[in-house]
Amino acid sequence: MTTPTRLRRTSIVAVVIFYVVATIVARRRGYSGLGGRTLVRCFEGHLFRTLWIPGVSLKSIRLGWYRFQFCPVGRHWTMVKPVRESDVADEIGAMDLLARDLAVP
Ligand SMILES: [Zn+2]
After folding, report:
1. What is the CA(20)–ligand 1 centre distance, in A?
2. Which of 4, 12, 101, 102 has its CA 20 to 30 A from that of 37?
3. How far is the CA of 4 from the centre of ligand 1 (A)?
């Protein structure tokens, strides 16, 4: 017999497994840093790293693959999207000069 408590616990486990799998899949596709410091680009083209943990977000509004958050480079609120490190390899050289985002997901 399934109690409501057990059902809720099962749902939480299912959600956690979903996000873990989604993170692994995204990493295999070249989006390194998902679940940690992820390379993202805002809609105005600024490149920066932010703490991106799939399913966890305290300082931004999640909209699927995109997030609405503050861009520390242009100092504006915008939509950001993870980018493949290999797609921006020539720009990564300057990454260490870029502003760091807050270490809050
Ligand atoms: Zn920006």
Report:
1. 28
2. 12
3. 45
Give me the amino acid identity at 10.
T
pTM above the 0.90 mark? no
- Ligand 1 centroid from CA 15, angstroms: 31
**Per-state percent for the chain, helix, strand, coil, to nearest 5:** 35, 30, 35
Cα 72 to Cα 102: distance, rounded to the nearest angstrom:
9
Q: Of 48, 59, 35, which Cα lies nearest the Cα of 101?
A: 48
Q: Name the one residue in this structure whose structure tokens are 């390899």.
A: 89
Helix ranges (H only) for 1-105 are: 4-28, 89-92
The count of other CB atoms within 10 Å of the CB of residue 80 is 24
Residues in the chain: 105
| Three-state DSSP class for residue 33 | coil
